[in-house]
Write a structure and sequence with these properties.
Oligomer: single chain
Radius of gyration: 19 Å
Strand content: under 5%
Low-confidence stretches: none
Number of helices: 10
Structural class: mainly alpha
Largest sheet: none
Number of strands: 0
């Protein structure tokens, strides 16, 4: 790990422990083992570190999606992929995504930091909503919309169907964040949720 990567890693750890507002550049430098002027050679301020963490999270997600043989960003491409998946393959994909978000160090720490800060900082509350509510619902809404148009799923309200799918997953994720010992229970519920969703909305295997 080079110095720039270590700065991001230690900054994110501090943000998740103390909250974004309570961490200063000097704290990050101390944790890395360098002086503040040396840190400024890599990032001009704390906001630049925060932005770089988000960029790194996006890169990690793209790598994960690629490893799972999906786009993760282009709903039209992924709709054609999901169409050909068996239920077992769909369950496996669902688990892989859930476990990635639950255990990926960047996502886990970033989510904890935003959970702490969302009630104190309006801008960070908006970041939380964008990353963990608005963006997933937007992508999944487009994905399901393509699948409904293709006759793979059946509904007269894609928006509500999208909420039916995502809300339980988000709930299970937050439960596991607070109570990690409930992960096995959550995974079983996730499987049952995906299978029931499949039955209710009529995905054709």
């Amino acid at each position: 790990m080079n110095t720039k990567e270590k700065i991001l890693d230690e900054a994110l750890t501090l943000f998740s422990e103390k909250g974004y507002a309570n961490v200063f550049v000097g704290d990050i430098a101390d944790r890395v083992g360098i002086k503040a002027p040396s840190l400024y050679k890599h990032f001009k301020n704390k906001q630049a570190i925060f932005d770089a963490i988000i960029d790194q999270m996006n890169r990690r997600f793209e790598e994960q999606a690629k490893a799972m043989n999906i786009s993760g960003n282009d709903a039209s491409i992924d709709a054609s992929i999901y169409k050909s998946l068996s239920e077992d393959q769909l369950l496996k994909l669902g688990r892989e995504f859930f476990l990635y978000y639950l255990h990926d160090d960047y996502n886990r720490k970033f989510r904890k930091m935003l959970t702490l800060e969302q009630f104190h900082d309006v801008d960070l509350a908006k970041v939380y909503s964008k990353l963990y509510v608005d963006d997933p619902l937007s992508y999944q809404g487009m994905l399901f919309g393509f699948m409904v148009t293709a006759g793979i799923l059946k509904t007269d309200n894609v928006q509500i169907m999208t909420l039916h799918f995502y809300a339980p997953i988000y709930y299970l994720l937050t439960i596991c964040d607070r109570e990690p010992e409930r992960e096995p229970e959550a995974l079983k519920l996730l499987d049952e949720h995906i299978k029931q969703f499949d039955r209710i909305y009529g995905r054709e295997n």
